[in-house]
Amino acid sequence: MAHIGDLVAEMLAQYGVELVFGMPGGQTTALHDGISRRSNRIRHVLMRDERNAAYAADAYARLTGKPGVCDVTVGPGANLLPAGFIEALNASVPMIGIVGELPLDWLTLKEKGIASQGFDQLSFFKTITKDSWLVPSVTALPEMIRTAFRVATSPRPGPVALIIPHDIFDAEWDENLVKVAIDDRAIQAPFVRAAPTGEAVADAVALIARSKRPALVCGGGVHGADATAEVGRVAEKLQGLVVTSLTGRGSVPETLPYAAGTLNPLGSWAAIELIKEADLVIWCGSKASQNTAMNWTLPLPEQATITIDADPNEHGRTFRPTVSLFGDVREALRLIDRSLEPQSHPAWMARIAEVKEAGEAQKREEIASEQLPLNPPRVMAALAERLSEDDIVVSDASFSAGWIANFLPARKAGRQFLYARGQGGLGYSTPAAIGAAATRPDARIVTVAGDGAFSYTIGELATQVQQNQRVVNIVLNNGRLGWIQLWQEIFFKNVQSALLESQSCHPSFAEAAAGLGLKAFYVEKPDEIGPALDAAFAYDGPSVVEFRIDDLATPIHSFKRRMREGGDTPRPRPGTVYKLRDWKTSPTLA
């Protein structure tokens, strides 16, 4: 007998969903039965924790452009999804959560868990998704699935939740009465594309032509619009500075002479220095967030600006742009490319080369360090030597993002780096690697996490083993929460809640990984780095390489300078109010 779990599984398969990540419950077992009957078209990846299902689905979505699908049961399963959903919402990642629910006629008993595991799930998910729906009947379900895909993939993409009651999931599916039909436009984001007006494009092209030192800031919206080819063509004509946000890495190869790396306090010194010298900043698929806009010190008052974004709310959120190009990033760049004549800025390009070389000299000094515990740049340089262009690198939050951005270059255009920057929460890399490896089974996946972040999801290493995935997990272990220690030391002169070790507690991540069935290596000395990485890369399965690193190392350049120069940072006074800088209007170049 066909049931509604079959209907849902069939529609997912017709929408091109190959993988569903999650954990079953009694209320959602019909879905798993339906998926199992279609194993040649769609399969389920069993996770150890529902929150990690959302992170795995997030990686699937970023690498395919399709909505990542995760499934959880009612109550305890549902309430573990917020971290992954908020990451996807803030990072504009299309995602569909299929959530179990109590039977419809039990919904009045959900309060206080009178009906086991019940709570107001619809109100809960409304706050962390683009939209959420409770399915009221079998006949309504197909249209609600179509709506879920349309909303998840339409500009601006994001997560949605489809809450399906137990009695509906288990109901008989009469294929003659309830037909399956999909909207094939919503298989992949973006669902629709709009172009900016011709007048706005003409204004932007004229502004670019007047610029002497143009800069292009590429955000995650470049990858969301599949616009790296268009960025490359415009960048070649622009002949100016190109930098990216963390999620925008790979918009252009970072080996190009005008590419200066990642604009972020954790990112490239050259990018941070050069962006301040630009007379025009083009924000392309970037929402000029706190980190990319360097705590909103950018754009500078004298800098003209162009914003390119499909979300109308991003044009003027923290500054009024000189020109707004409201439309799909790819379509906007195509129109610019058609009208823009090749530019020439030899003095600006020479300045870019000069500052980049100064930054590289600083990095070479860090890489050569023989210090113990290990200096992270030494580890990351060795890792960079072993990465191929097709490997996928998954970053966890905090300092790991900076070490990756500074020392693992994006050698080709495309999304090869996955960052948890929508919310910036710890614990992203291990489950996201599962999603990435399941999506790209022929690729090698490399994660980089600190010991604090790695501790969050260590149980999912067993999933990597069970799925026999080619994942190399790099753990930079300094025995503490590095960011918190640095913050407490600089601003409060009192490190009191950052230590993850004590005299009686020295967690060994390599030993834990070996116990879960992975190949594991522990590295303390510089001459051990290369052999351990070689063995991990040669292994046809998941591995963990744990490096003991200096607990004072930081990729944040402003703190590095302060530490080198022996300077001090004034402590904030009690009652200090932190506020956004004044909103301003960008000028028009003369």
UniProtKB/TrEMBL annotation:
GO cellular component: acetolactate synthase complex
Protein name: Acetolactate synthase isozyme 2 large subunit
GO MF annotation, one: magnesium ion binding
All copies of domain Thiamine pyrophosphate enzyme central, residue ranges: 201-334
Superkingdom per UniProt: Bacteria
Keywords, comma-separated and alphabetical: Thiamine pyrophosphate, Transferase
Thiamine pyrophosphate enzyme N-terminal TPP-binding domain location: 4-121
Ranges for region Disordered: 562-590
One BP term from GO: L-valine biosynthetic process
Enzyme class, spelled out: transferase
Family: Belongs to the TPP enzyme family.
Cofactor(s) the protein needs: thiamine diphosphate
Pfam families reported in the protein's UniProt record: TPP_enzyme_C, TPP_enzyme_M, TPP_enzyme_N
Annotated organism of origin: Starkeya nomas
